[in-house]
């Protein structure tokens, strides 16, 4: 049938107004009247139908009960069906009213309240997800422990390497036995006066050396000592102290040490203690921006910053070196708060302008603004950069933001801070308000290892270039040792006033058993297998034995340019955690704590790669 015949009232384009089929004005008027009467009838039907909300309910609150019931309706049970229908309709009406009340409530809430509700819901899901395996007596999720690959090692086949590795173990044994004998339970050992030593960095928390050394004992297979240390942790490690601690130091040494001990041994006590301590640290984040305080009273939860820090600022290397440990704490506790706190730090940093792409060392936690424009890859800045890279590596390379932040920061460091001396030594200078200070710290020497570790993922074919930079920094740092009398590196060395890689100020000439140079040798050895790195490491061992080993342990020295050592009488806990562990790994095969599976925190505590239950993006969105 032609379409035109179905549309008698419609004028087709082919029709002219004068044609015989066209309507007169009166006909048109009548047709219009009929048509409007029809429309009115239709509207009337809609308005006068009984309880239209029931129809809507059927669409928006689709219920299988309704379907079941309507299918059941027969004449014989019509009475029952009517009763059931009423119940269902009542339920639908109730649900509908509830949904309307909820929607009204939500509309009355402030945006931050709505955000908080969403966050609570997400936290609930996160926790439910983690506790699928159930909860233990401490209300922690039950986690099936599986030892990550490479937790234990084996003897190297090359006799000289094997012998050197054994020597490092003997050094560890001496350092540990001395601590046991003279300072058991104290934070550190005074090896000359042969007694305990406590730094105020740890408040009244005790046993820094025990916790810092746990994983080294395990890695060196000193299992009896590991058991003894475990027992001490079980019985004596107590965080219920009314004292102020450094959030950063307690995190990297205690939380990091406990986490590593857990991942290496699977002993639950370490997981529990790490989480307990992590919870104690959370009040440090109660600042207007969420940038944590440097110091925290563990009992009162009151925090503050170092009095010397520019305008009450928090320190980049301190608040920026919590990420790895806190991500693990969320994973092991089922509490997303830890991860959220450190992700928020990134958010705050992302909002700020960076002078020449650099991150100043000082940030005010109240205003969220930079303090003094002082930039350093050494003290006050160092491990912030390290943790950007390691956050990406530890996340199984899913934390793309961490990756980008790291490589962008490294580019800015290369452009604005990295320089070559006239004698050809590459160094990383410091930056103060736009002016370069041609000084490098012993602490900055870790950067050789960091750059080597990140070189593989470097964008724009820069892998080779970054490996060269790493090798050059390793060489410079080796020079800083080689140019001293004691063959140990000074705390700071300069490239001005006619010197290169030499300390010129008396207060920069000391050596406190720091690990950074040896750390870089270890990374460079693993990536290049150039024997010089093992040789350089061995030179350091000889110098340590000759000048730092005393009757009661190992001590730092006050002047590395003096003809004989003047001891400072402190055996730092990081000597056992880092210096001796990195030396041991330098003389071990690469499959012991392999980089594919382990990431070292800034205190050399190995943490396994972390497969997160929820994505980094999810945590960030909170
Ligand atoms: C260690 O506690 C850590 O490596 C930290 O990041 C900086 N320095 C000391 C050791 O020198």
Automatic annotation (TrEMBL):
One annotated GO molecular function: mannosyl-oligosaccharide 1,2-alpha-mannosidase activity
Subcellular localization is given as: Endomembrane system
What are the entry keywords? Calcium, Disulfide bond, Glycosidase, Hydrolase, Membrane, Metal-binding, Signal-anchor, Transmembrane, Transmembrane helix
Q: Which GO terms describe its biological process?
A: carbohydrate metabolic process
Q: Which residues cross the membrane?
A: 29-49
Name the coenzymes or cofactors required: Ca(2+)
Q: How does it sit in the membrane?
A: Single-pass type II membrane protein
Region (Disordered), start-end ranges: 129-164
Tell me the InterPro entries matching this sequence. 6hp_glycosidase-like_sf, Glyco_hydro_47, Glycosyl_Hydrolase_47, Seven-hairpin_glycosidases
Superkingdom: Eukaryota
**Catalytic activity line of the entry:** N(4)-(alpha-D-Man-(1->2)-alpha-D-Man-(1->2)-alpha-D-Man-(1->3)-[alpha-D-Man-(1->3)-[alpha-D-Man-(1->2)-alpha-D-Man-(1->6)]-alpha-D-Man-(1->6)]-beta-D-Man-(1->4)-beta-D-GlcNAc-(1->4)-beta-D-GlcNAc)-L-asparaginyl-[protein] (N-glucan mannose isomer 8A1,2,3B1,3) + 3 H2O = N(4)-(alpha-D-Man-(1->3)-[alpha-D-Man-(1->3)-[alpha-D-Man-(1->6)]-alpha-D-Man-(1->6)]-beta-D-Man-(1->4)-beta-D-GlcNAc-(1->4)-beta-D-GlcNAc)-L-asparaginyl-[protein] (N-glucan mannose isomer 5A1,2) + 3 beta-D-mannose; N(4)-(alpha-D-Man-(1->2)-alpha-D-Man-(1->2)-alpha-D-Man-(1->3)-[alpha-D-Man-(1->2)-alpha-D-Man-(1->3)-[alpha-D-Man-(1->2)-alpha-D-Man-(1->6)]-alpha-D-Man-(1->6)]-beta-D-Man-(1->4)-beta-D-GlcNAc-(1->4)-beta-D-GlcNAc)-L-asparaginyl-[protein] (N-glucan mannose isomer 9A1,2,3B1,2,3) + 4 H2O = N(4)-(alpha-D-Man-(1->3)-[alpha-D-Man-(1->3)-[alpha-D-Man-(1->6)]-alpha-D-Man-(1->6)]-beta-D-Man-(1->4)-beta-D-GlcNAc-(1->4)-beta-D-GlcNAc)-L-asparaginyl-[protein] (N-glucan mannose isomer 5A1,2) + 4 beta-D-mannose
**Residues annotated as catalytic:** 249, 382, 491, 516
Q: Its Enzyme Commission number? A: 3.2.1.-
**Any single GO CC term annotated in Swiss-Prot or TrEMBL for this entry:** extracellular exosome
User: Which residues does Ca(2+) bind?
Assistant: 602
Pathway involvement of the protein, from the record:
Protein modification; protein glycosylation
Q: What is its main location?
A: membrane
Here the segments flagged for biased composition (Basic and acidic residues) are 129-138, 155-164
Q: List the disulfide bonds.
A: 445-477
Described purpose of this protein according to its UniProt entry: Involved in the maturation of Asn-linked oligosaccharides. Progressively trim alpha-1,2-linked mannose residues from Man(9)GlcNAc(2) to produce Man(5)GlcNAc(2).
The entry sums up its family as follows:
Belongs to the glycosyl hydrolase 47 family.
Q: What is the recorded name of this protein?
A: alpha-1,2-Mannosidase
- Organism, as annotated: Salmo trutta (Brown trout)
